[in-house]
Amino acid sequence: MNTHDQFAENVRLYALGSLDAGERQSFEGHLHECAECRRELHAAQEELGLLALSTVGPKPPARSRERLLSAIAKEPKRVERQANIGKGWMWIPWFATVVFALLSALLYFANLRLKNDVAAIRANSQTQEVELRQAREMLDLLKSPDAMRVTLTTPNEKPKPNGKTIYSQQKGRLILMVSNLAPAPPHMAYELWLVPKQGAPVPAGTFWPDASGNATMMQTTMPSGMEPKAFAVTLEKAEGSDTPTMPMVMMGAAGD
Question: Where are the beta strands (DSSP E) in 78-118?
Fold first, then answer.
């Protein structure tokens, strides 16, 4: 039994004056610290006041007093529920909020990473599709029965730059392969020209050789049905030109 419960049993005995000197002194010391016991003592004193009908008259029998004390002792004690929940529980809502925020952040970054991975996979897939399509178009051109092969050279150059074109008049597709070509000057580019048997030269695309002087270009948008007389390469501005700028860097006649 805890200390408060022990003193709570002595409230009514104290009100009746039935405690001995030591118990009374101990209980009175407890009253200074316990508001609940003070309230119960006040209630007990009010109940006993109703029993005092007069300051004079016959003295109640001792047996009646014992019955009263026994009834008071057996009366169920009122237990007041503490209104305040321990302060230790107050951190639970804050902790739940923090946990929810952390989980939300983790889900957000996981979702963002997944989106980035999917985007990278799609970009890689698209690049592979383009490369595969170009390879198929190149193979289709190489297998074309009307594919014309023309070699382009530069005289008096050692090692001589040379290039080779494969052109399908029916399909309007062209491949250029160049080697030993000097780098293009700043803001300049090499441009390939298809010189038809009739009419002005037609631009067939710009290109830049790598550090070894090699370059490969595939053009799939050439006008179909155009019969070439020759192919030539010139140096032009980086965005290309509508008419060739002399002198020719390389040139090869069709049918050679």
Answer: none
161: pLDDT strictly greater than 50: yes
210-241: burial string, b at 16+ Cβ within 10 Å, e else: eeeeebebbbeebeeeeebebbbbbbbeeeee
Assign domain 147-253 to its CATH architecture. Sandwich (2.60)
CB atoms within 10 A of CB 140: 14
Instruction: Note the residue count of the chain.
Output: 256
For residue 236 the two structure tokens come to 């032009």
What average pLDDT does the segment 9-24 reach?
A: 76
- Distance between CA atoms of 170 and 136, rounded to whole angstroms? 17
Instruction: List the domain boundaries for the chain.
Output: 3-53+60-74, 94-138, 147-253
**Residues 81-92: tens digit of each pLDDT:** 554 555 556 677
Q: Could you count the other beta carbons within 10 Å of the beta carbon of residue 161?
A: 18
* pLDDT value at residue 70: 67
CB-based burial label for 118 (10 Å; 0-12, 13-18, 19+)? exposed
N- to C-terminal Cα distance for the chain?
A: 118
